[in-house]
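Sequence in, structure out.
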Amino acid sequence: MILRLLTCLIVSLTLSLPSQAVETLRVLTWPGYADSDLVKAFEKKYDVRVEVSYISSDEVLRQKISANHGDDFDVFAANTAELQHYLDEKLIVPLRLANIPNTANQLPRFRNAKNIPGITQLGEVYAVPYTYSEMGLIFDRKQFKEAPTSIAVMWDPRYQGRVLAFNDSSHNFSIASLALGGKPFRIEDKNVKSVVDHLIALRRNVLTFYTLPEESVELFRTQTAALLFANYGRQQLKLLQDAGADVGYVIPQEGALAWLDCWAITRGVKNKNLAERWINYMLDITVSRELTRRQGLSNTIEADTATRETDKIIWLEPVEDDKRRAALWARIISGDLPGRF
């Protein structure tokens, strides 16, 4: 009798104990970088749970990473121009490349971290390149007799109400400066007013400003847009083509801004080994090929055959005053007419 009671007590206690919690990896990234089936494969391989959150702009990314000093996420994707901010604020930690062996399979220009601005500091590597694209122009072939050649087409009154632009302060200031013949990342104080005036003119000429690639595709198709500034590059081109749109893609003569997105680990990472496994998994040849096949984006493992040597590519760099750009852009897009700079 006593033995039976002891047995029941042991069973009861065993059943009441909480099961061992599954470890969770918190990923902050852009749409298309962590498709559910690829995430599930990673979860199964390492017996973990992956919690993916998406962002729509560099500003949102900064807000989410900075909100709790990096404690809310483990690993995230950011372009090289933005990484300098996270380095300066000490929000990311050095990587142990020995734990990311797939970096050895990357193309030579991506393996040499010292030659990539923004990802190293004091001899330590803080980020690993993952994917890249230029921000070209997508146009409706039915509404253009010839492909546009200049970024100035975004201001062309003939297409008023049929232009889609990206809702981002930094990039819009850069392309407006380019359109005026200036430098994209270092706008001098004396030129700020002319750039602001040009952006006000852009606001008046566009249909709207989008944030996510899927949103831009829906707007392009349903609103009979003629032109799209492709912040997400060839990813948007592929989405439109897959949707049956008859579109072309060009690099304007002034050049196209281009981003190189990298994986980095926050200082608040819960399990650095697991975060490094995620980065290594993203660089697996099969996963990288799927990124290119599904999203139309270039990966860092295989050479890009779509880019021509004659295309003028302008890699993103930190800007002269990102806070001023953001403050002015908020006023511009709201319909205000900034009077002071």
